[in-house]
Design goal:
The chain is an alpha+beta fold. The protein has two domains: 3-173, Immunoglobulin-like, CATH 2.60.40; 176-267, Sandwich (Immunoglobulin-like). It is built from four helices and 18 strands. A four-stranded antiparallel β-sheet has the order 1-2-8-5. The chain is globular. It starts with a helix and ends in a 5-residue tail after the last strand.
């Protein structure tokens, strides 16, 4: 087992053997990361964004929705009044982190995870507009520790600082593939041993500008993150099914080019 992954498991499951140690580790995680709820509510619209802002001490990082070889994505449990309807948590483009040959995806210093919210009853909203959330995370440097926080926010007209924070990280959200100007020119899936080797060639004027691919997590398949290569518009990745005979139908993730991310979902049943 890789050293970083072992350290994570040691901290996360140490409560099975020594509860005081786990409590101490969690307390440390809560000192390294500060969490707050913010919003960009303008005071009149029926739709706005909640932001879960993580402020992280220098040298430490938290994880993206796909942590990579090791780690855990942040967990957000919202407690909303019945007249507020929340969408999915949106993750800005992360940074690729190669630590002792362990590939991870995460955020240093600060990140705001964004949650779209709709007000379904304006009358009820005026009477009760408190939003609560339980947030959990794993924060890492040379070792990893867990943390959690209970936070809340009264939804009133947002100040300019909050609005600019959410606007900043909204611009870092991966965009639809169609906006990239790219297209899939060819696709090949080949079984090599127990793994599926996928090769995708992209076309378009910016195809050679693709620098990386951050895959989505996959049920029943293990991604070899170190196998991911992108060169001259060609993506290569190796994935191993956890059960013999399983085949991938789709490969989803984020293509990175020009410091921006574009979400792509590749239908692997349409091989050339």
């Amino acid at each position: 087992m890789k050293s970083l992954e072992f350290k994570i498991l040691l901290v996360l499951f140490s409560n099975l053997f020594a509860f005081p140690f786990f409590t101490l580790a969690q307390s440390l995680g809560e000192k390294i990361v500060n969490v707050e709820l913010i919003s960009d509510y303008d005071g009149v619209s029926d739709r706005f964004n909640l932001g879960v802002r993580f402020s992280i001490k220098p040298g430490w990082y938290i994880y993206w929705k796909n942590p990579g070889d090791a780690g855990l994505a942040p967990s957000i449990e919202l407690n909303l009044p019945s007249f507020l309807k929340a969408g999915n948590v949106l993750f800005p483009l992360p940074q690729k982190i190669d630590h002792e040959n362990v590939v991870s995806y995460g955020y240093f210093n600060e990140v705001v995870l964004i949650i779209p919210v709709e007000i379904t009853s304006r009358a009820k909203f005026k009477g009760e507009n408190i939003v609560k959330a339980k947030v959990s995370w794993v924060v890492c440097s040379e070792s990893c520790v867990p943390g959690s926080a209970n936070v809340q926010l009264k939804i009133i007209k947002a100040n300019n600082q909050w609005r600019s924070k959410i606007e900043k990280y909204a611009k870092m959200l991966p965009q639809p593939f169609e906006k990239s100007g790219l297209k899939i020119e060819s696709l090949k899936v080949e079984r090599k041993g127990k793994s599926d080797f996928v090769r995708v060639k992209f076309g378009g004027s910016l195809a050679t500008k693709i620098v990386d691919f951050y895959p989505e997590q996959m049920d029943k398949f293990l991604i070899d993150f170190k196998s991911i290569k992108v060169k001259d518009g060609v993506l290569e990745i190796s994935v191993t099914p956890t059960s013999q005979g399983d085949r991938m139908n789709f490969l989803s993730g984020v293509l990175v080019l020009n410091d921006k991310g574009y979400e792509v979902k590749i239908d692997l049943t349409k091989t050339n």
